[in-house]
Design brief:
- This protein has about 425 residues and is of the alpha/beta class.
- The chain is built from twelve helices and 14 strands.
- The longest helix is centred in the C-terminal third of the chain and has 25 residues.
């Protein structure tokens, strides 16, 4: 990475202009969107290369890690910067906020989040604090919010933000996962951007950790070449002239399209693939835990009954998105909503003589509380994904299947689907479960 053209362009820009190197990203070691160790490594290397000033714009996690662990990562980063800083280098946290409040929107569900992030990181607009810890503690007392929902904050001295993004600065988005990195990348790169008023569009050099969308080439400059994901299930089915249908609401629409097709925003075949999106509501998930499950089901059933498609897929976000809130009562409603919807899908499957598979990519609503703290004797909300095994259910009213014994996972799903369709799967795939 440090020998790449992109990295050296970012560094040389800062050296030549005596400008600031900015880092924006999720501050945790959750390893789903980012890792704090990457940030530390880049800060250290930037100093070695001769960068004078670095500013870090931190997004607080609380979803892929403990719900209220932000200060652990802030203290870790502050200690690292204290040891790194000297007369030749000055690195500081400049702004921040919860990941579900600013910057990290996905699938264009809520551009206002990105707008608020732009105002925070770039323009330095917002409530000012002397340090990140003060901001986090203050907001926790005032709002009783978990890390992911904490409002934005600006670090300032004498009433002036210490880290606005200015002309000739360099900016690195150090998230490596694409879905919540695409929109803010567009805001930094698109000269004709129209989703919100940026107020000013600084002349900077911008790079992502990876290229988040290979089809749309977003961003144009990136530090690590993206994986070349090929031989996906959709690609295989398209080659066999099988029509496919995908549906979800905005919050998970990319999971049945972009991610499903190998981090591609496009289709393998416009004629064979149909995508439908149900617009998500812009409200906290625990305030409307049924989300758009009914609407997804309506569309899915219509597609099943249309007799146009041999393979259909849907994602119900409820268990994941509501599970992340840590609200037990809301999670129950979320899961019950999906139960009701699946009962409707089963009837539609029976009517056409189809086969239904029910599975998931990970757990969340299955474990809503952390284990009790021995010293305090109380439980607290668990907002992160669980590591529990997920179910894999094959429903067919007319037939039973012989399930193999063994250790299986998500990599076995595609071959199982192909087998159920009566086809032979490629040798390079993991084996079928049946």
């Amino acid at each position: 990475m440090y020998e790449s053209i992109a990295w050296n362009s970012l560094i040389n820009n800062c050296i030549d202009n005596r400008s600031t190197l900015h880092f924006i990203g999720l501050l945790s070691d959750g390893n789903v969107h980012s890792n704090i160790s990457h940030l530390k490594s880049m800060l250290k290397r930037a100093k070695e290369h001769g960068v004078l000033n670095a500013r870090i714009h931190i997004l607080l996690d609380g979803r892929d890690v403990d719900a209220t662990s932000a200060l652990k990562y802030v203290h870790d980063l502050e200690l690292f910067l204290t040891e790194l800083n000297d007369n030749s280098f000055n690195g500081r946290i400049a702004s921040g906020g919860g990941r579900m409040k600013i910057t990290m929107d996905r699938y264009e569900a809520n551009w206002d989040m990105v707008k608020l992030g732009w105002e925070t990181h770039v323009l330095g607009m917002g409530r000012q604090f002397d340090c990140a810890e003060t901001a986090i503690r203050t907001y926790r007392e005032e709002t009783n919010s978990l890390d992911q929902d904490l409002p934005p904050f600006i670090i300032a001295e004498d009433g002036k933000p210490i880290g606005t993004i200015e002309d000739y600065d360099s900016v690195i988005l150090f998230n490596f996962r694409g879905d919540r990195a695409i929109e803010v990348s567009k805001a930094f790169e698109d000269e004709y951007f129209s989703k919100f008023d940026r107020v000013r569009f600084p002349k900077i050099i911008f790079a992502g950790m990876l290229q988040y969308d290979g089809d749309l080439k977003i961003p144009r400059r990136y530090l690590v070449s993206p994986p070349n994901i090929k031989n996906t299930l959709s690609e295989f089915l398209a080659k066999h002239n099988i029509k496919q249908y995908a549906v979800s609401e905005t919050q998970k629409y990319g999971h049945v399209t972009y991610f499903w097709n190998g981090n591609r925003s496009g289709k393998f075949s416009e004629d064979l693939e149909t995508f439908e999106e149900v617009l998500s509501d812009k409200v906290p998930f625990d305030q409307r835990p049924w989300m758009k499950a009914a609407e997804i089901t309506d569309k899915l059933i219509n597609a099943i009954k249309s007799d146009k498609y041999m393979f259909l897929r849907a994602n119900y976000p409820n268990g994941d998105m509501v599970g992340h809130t840590g609200n037990m009562a809301a999670a129950r409603i979320a899961v019950e909503s999906v139960d009701l919807c699946i009962s409707r899908v089963i009837k539609a499957i029976d009517d056409v003589g189809g086969i239904l598979i029910v599975t998931a990519d990970h757990g969340n609503a299955d474990e809503m509380l952390e284990k009790p703290n021995e010293s305090k004797g109380s439980s607290k909300a668990k907002t992160a994904h669980t590591l529990n095994p997920v179910p894999f259910i094959i429903y067919d009213k007319t037939k039973k299947y012989n399930i193999k014994q063994g250790e299986f996972g998500l990599a076995n799903v595609a071959s199982t689907i192909v087998r159920l369709l009566g086809l032979n799967y490629p040798d390079i795939w993991e084996e079928s479960i049946i």
